[in-house]
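Dear colleague,

As promised, here are the two records you asked about, laid out in our usual form so they can be pasted straight into your sheet.

NAME FIELD: protein one
SEQUENCE, THEN STRUCTURE:
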Amino acid sequence: MRALLFDLDGTLTKSGGGGSRALGKALGAHSRALEELRNMRLDGMTDKSIARALLATEADASLPLPDRMKAVETKAIDAVLETYLERLEEECAARPYQPLAGVEELLKRLAARSDVLLGLCTGNLRRGAEIKLRSAGLWGPFRFGGYGSDAEPRPDIVRIAWQRAKELGATEALVIGDTSRDILAAHDAGLPACGVATGRFSVHELAEHGAELIAQDFADPAAAERLLTGPLH
C-alpha cells in the first residue's frame, strides 16, 4: 500500500495570494513584520516558521537573527496564527482557492484505487489546510496528514505523516510537492519525493534537488496517476 503525501499550496491549488493577505491582516500593528512579509519567499515554509521569522523582525536588530528567532515566544506565534485562520476563512469565502489543472480528476482516480492512501504533508496548520481545500472542493479525498500544527520543522511533519500512513496500513510512501523544501524534507525523513513544476521551481531545479520523480504538472491525470503509482526511481 502506497501513501501519497501531497503538499498543498502550489501543488494542489492556486490561491491568488489569499494566504498572504490573511497573514498580513493577522500581523496588525507589527509594521516591520508586514514589510518583511512583502519581501519573503514563503514557498515550502511552515506556518509556524513563517510567523516566527516575521515576528523576529520586531526584535532588536542588533541581535543575531538566530537569537531573535529563538526569542520569539510560542504564545506570540499562536496569537498571530489564530487571527490568521479567522482572516483566512474570510479570504476563502470571498475568493476560493482553485484546483490546479487536472488535480480534481487525479484525486478521483487515486481515491478509487485500493493500493493507495491519500494524505497531506503540508506546512499549513490542519485547520488552515481544511479551509483552503474545502474552498477548492478538494478536502474530501484526504484521510490523514502531517500538518504545520503538528511540528514546526518540515522534516518532522513528513515523519508524522508517514507514521500516520503506516498506522493505516501503508508500506511505502511518496512525498509530492512543488518546492525544494518538499524534496529535502522528504529525504531528511527517509522518503522519496516527486517534484511537480507548478510553482516557482522548474523541472530542472527540482531534479537538481534530487527528486526521484518529476512532473511538469498534473494536467494529464492518467499520466500523473501512472507516475505516482509506478516505480519509485
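NAME FIELD: protein two
SEQUENCE, THEN STRUCTURE:
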Amino acid sequence: MTTPTCPYAGGMTVPDETERAALVALLRTRPDGLRWPEIVAEVAETGSSREVWRRHVADTLPGTSGAGDPLGSAARDLAAWAAAGHQVVTVLDPDYPERLRGIHQAPPVLFARGALIPRDRAVSVVGSRTASRRGVDIAANIARALVSEGITVVSGLAHGVDAAAHRAALDAGGRTVAVIGTGINRVYPEANRALHSEIAERGLLLSQFWPDAPPQRHTFLTRNATMSGYGIATVVVEAQEKSGARVQARVAVEHGRPVVLTDVVVGDNEWARQLVGRPGVHVAVGLDDVLAVVCRLRDEEQAVADALDRLTSAHPVG
C-alpha cells in the first residue's frame, strides 16, 4: 500500500489564532473568486493563511472591529465556537488528522467534539440507510472485530449500516468516529440524537461544514470523501446502485485507499462488479476475509510508519 504524499508537509508553522481567523475569512469571502481547494492549495504553498490574505485582500488586512471586518468577524466566531465546546482544527494545525491531509479534497477546517487523534488507525464501515437485517448484523460483526484489533470504526451516523457500526463499536468498548453531513450544531437524523451525543463523549464527532449548516444532498456526498481520507480503508457492507457507499468506494479508489466489498455488495450491484479487479479493491466472503485484509493493511501501514520514523530520527530536519 502506498502512502499518499501530504501536500501540507514542510514549511508549516503551528498557527496562532490570527492564522486561523485569516483562513476562516478567506473561506467565507473567497477573494478574487477563489474556490476552497484553491485557497487550501495557496495556504499550503505559503504556509500562512495571513500571507494569502495579504496577497488577495491587502487593502483590508488591517481591518477594524466593526461588522464589515472579515478578520474580526472570523476571530469572534472562533472564540464563540471554542466557548461552545467545539474544537476547530485547520489544515495548518498539527492535530489535523494525518491521513486526511493526503487527499485533494482535504477539508480546510474541521469542527470536532471528542478526542482528536492525528494518527488514528481507523477503517470506514459504510452501507445502506435501508439495510436489511443481515446487513445490520454484518456491520455490527465487522465493527466488533475491528475493535478487537484496536482499530477505530468510522462511519457517517446515518440510519442502517452506519448506526449499527457505531453502536456495536461503542458496546464493544471501542473507539468510533462519526463524520457527519451537517454542521456540528445539528443532529441528523433526529432518531440518532442519543447516539450523536454518546459518540461526542466517548469517541469523536467530526464535521467539515459551518456549525449551523443544514443537511443537504451534496454535504453527505462530500463527507464520504472525508471518511475515505480519514481511514486506512473502506469496508462497504451492503449498498444500492445509487448510494453514498457507492460514492465512497469510488472516491477511495481515486485516493488510492483500499476498498473491501462484501460478496453481498458485489452480487447486488453493477457498480461494485465494475470495481472488482481495480488496484486495492478486495472482495470479502465472510468476516474472516474482511479482518484478514484489514489487519494486513494495518500491519503494512505500521511498517511504513516505523520506517519513516527511523529515517526521520536518523536525518532530522532543521
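A couple of things worth noting about protein two: Strands lie at 87-90, 109-114, 122-126, 152-155, 176-179, 204-207, 233-236, 259-262, 281-284. DSSP finds twelve helices and nine strands in the chain.

Best,
R.
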